[in-house]
Structure formats: C-alpha cells, structure tokens
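Hi Y.,

Following your request, here is the sequence exactly as I used it, all 95 residues.
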Amino acid sequence: MLIRDIHRSGEVDGTVVCIIDDNKNKWGRLIDNIPVVGGRESILEAVEKFAVDKIFLAIPFRYRIPKTRYLANLQRNHLRIKRIFPECISWLPDR
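Below is the corresponding structure, written out as tokens. Let me know if you'd prefer a different format.
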C-alpha cells in the first residue's frame, strides 16, 4: 500500500527500485513488483546493486530515526535521505 501511495501521489520524486525491511519474513518477496532485498545490513549492498541515489525512510512518526552506522555510511556516500511517514502518505493528493 505504501509503495502504491508513493507512486500515485507524485509528491515523492524518484522510482522505488528495492525495499529494505527488517522483517525477515518479507525478504525475497515482491511488494508491488518491487523486491524486498533484506534488512538494514543490506542497505549498502542494495545501493550499489540497484544504483540508488536517494533513500526513503518510511518510519512511523512516533519513532525516531535510529542513529546507526548504516545511516552514517549512507550520508558519507552522498546519498540523499528523505523521511516519509507511512501514516501520512495517504494524505498526499492524487496526481
């Protein structure tokens, strides 16, 4: 649902090429034809494999963004990081 809402709204620029999810049950599956490639430890590998230049962090509003070495590595590699709130994405207008 989140992926469809992102594409439908047009408010978030870019194309979603892969999904990182810490839920191991989702790894190797497709969500809206987009592969779930692993958890946080897979981020840098996915960035290289899929030529990612921007990362959308879909972390619920009530949670803080975790200060991890993964995020620090992403910022050092000059990747753009944009936080989106899953509970708010459906508020974006259709385009």
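The CA atoms of residues 9 and 92 lie 6 Å apart.

Thanks again,
Q.
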